[in-house]
Amino acid sequence: MTTVRLEEQAQFILENLSKELSLSKTSTVTRALDTLQNELFYSKLREANDRLRADAEAMSLHRKDIEAWDRTVSDGLAKEEDWPGEW
């Protein structure tokens, strides 16, 4: 276990969030870090998608790649064919 020093304001926020969420301080920090990590991931993903859309040539290649994969999805199987079990 690691100890992290928090400024007084951060400690106050942590205590309030922990009480409001009915979580331990450790669980609250873990949840906050997970949320921040997800926000950063999706922010970077949006930025990458924006760059892709801004580049006509790259977007054309991407669409061609997607179309190629879309043609392989069924691998010639009938759409109505029933497959047992979960995937």
What does this structure look like?
This protein is an all-alpha fold and 87 residues long. The longest helix has 30 residues, at 25-54. It has helices at 8-21, 25-54, 56-72. It has one domain (8-72). It is elongated, with a radius of gyration of 23 Å. 70% of the residues lie in helices and 0% in strands.
Beta-strand fraction estimate: under 5%
Total domains: 1
Number of helices: 3
The percent of residues in helical segments reads: over 70%
Topology order in helix (H) and strand (E) letters: HHH
Number of strands: 0
Pick out its properties.
87 residues; 70% helix; elongated; single chain; mainly alpha; 3 helices
Give the arrangement of secondary structure elements.
Elements: H1 8-21, H2 25-54, H3 56-72
Summarize the structure.
The protein is an all-alpha fold. The chain is 70% helix and 0% strand. Helix 1 crosses helix 2 (25-54).
